[in-house]
Design brief:
Order of helices and strands of chain B: EEEEEEEEEEE
Strand content of chain B: over 45%
Strand content of chain A: over 45%
Helix content of chain A: under 10%
Largest sheet of chain A: 7 strands, mixed
Structural class of chain B: mainly beta
Number of helices of chain B: 0
Order of helices and strands of chain A: EEEEEEEEEEE
Number of strands of chain A: 11
Number of strands of chain B: 11
Oligomer: heterodimer
Largest interface: A-B, 26 and 28 residues
């Protein structure tokens, strides 16, 4: 079974530029999560999708961050414009959520550096 | 209320020793407590998880101890091996909303010396 795929793995941009990250979840997983992991901290949930609908985006900075999952499969997370404090690893995870304790499987992440 | 506090921040253990990582929470709505293991350059991976209806769960060398009244839970790694060197995160999931949302602790970097 293929894992969660993310690209790019690394990205370096200047502040005020825009950037987009892509995630392809495990086949058949209806639930997709985007997390932000700042160096030295635990992952923080940004947004959760169930199929192509948003379940929770309470911690997504909506003035600069956006995410979509148009066909209920892969997803993109965009930052526009980026700030220095956005430097972090952006992790995508998926689960089948057949029970709410279902395992979340994480991708390798995209490391973003904002200069 | 939504926080999960984890300690210690870092831990050095000799091979064969016991590694213990502790977590505490405030929100009594949390009803699922997983531990994730993360190696450098990789995403976190589920190690072991517990529900509050049991006080202990063991899987191989890994054991979770859960104290519901104290709102604390801990991970014990028995016979620690150099291959266990990684960052460990505790997490908790609130019952409300049934979304599977995870609140992570700050992480503990474990180094097992050969």
């Amino acid at each position: 079974e293929a894992g969660v795929a993310q690209s790019p793995r690394y990205k370096i941009i200047e502040k005020r530029q825009s950037v987009a990250f892509w995630c392809n979840p495990i086949s058949g997983h209806a639930t997709l999560y985007w997390y932000q992991q700042i160096l030295g901290q635990g992952p923080k949930l940004l947004i959760q999708f169930q199929n192509n609908g948003v379940v929770d985006d309470s911690q997504l900075p909506k003035d600069r961050f956006s995410a979509e999952r148009l066909k209920g499969v892969d997803s993109t997370l965009k930052i526009q414009p980026a700030k220095l404090e956005d430097s972090a690893v952006y992790l995508c995870a998926s689960s089948s959520l057949q029970g709410w304790t279902d395992t979340q499987y994480f991708g390798p992440g995209t490391r973003l550096t904002v200069l | 209320q939504q926080q999960v506090k984890q300690s210690p921040q870092s831990l050095i253990v000799q091979k064969g020793g016991i590694s213990i990582i502790n977590c505490a929470y405030e929100n009594t709505a949390f009803d699922y407590f997983p531990w994730y293991q993360q190696f450098p350059g990789k995403g976190p991976a589920l190690l072991i998880a517990i529900r509050p209806d049991v006080s202990e769960k063991k899987e191989g060398r890994f054991t979770i101890s859960f104290n519901k009244s104290a709102k604390q839970f801990s991970l014990h790694i028995m016979d620690s091996q150099p291959g266990d060197s990684a960052t460990y995160f505790c997490a908790a999931s609130p019952l409300s909303g049934n979304t599977g949302k995870l609140i992570f602790g700050q992480g503990t970097t474990l180094q097992v010396k050969p």
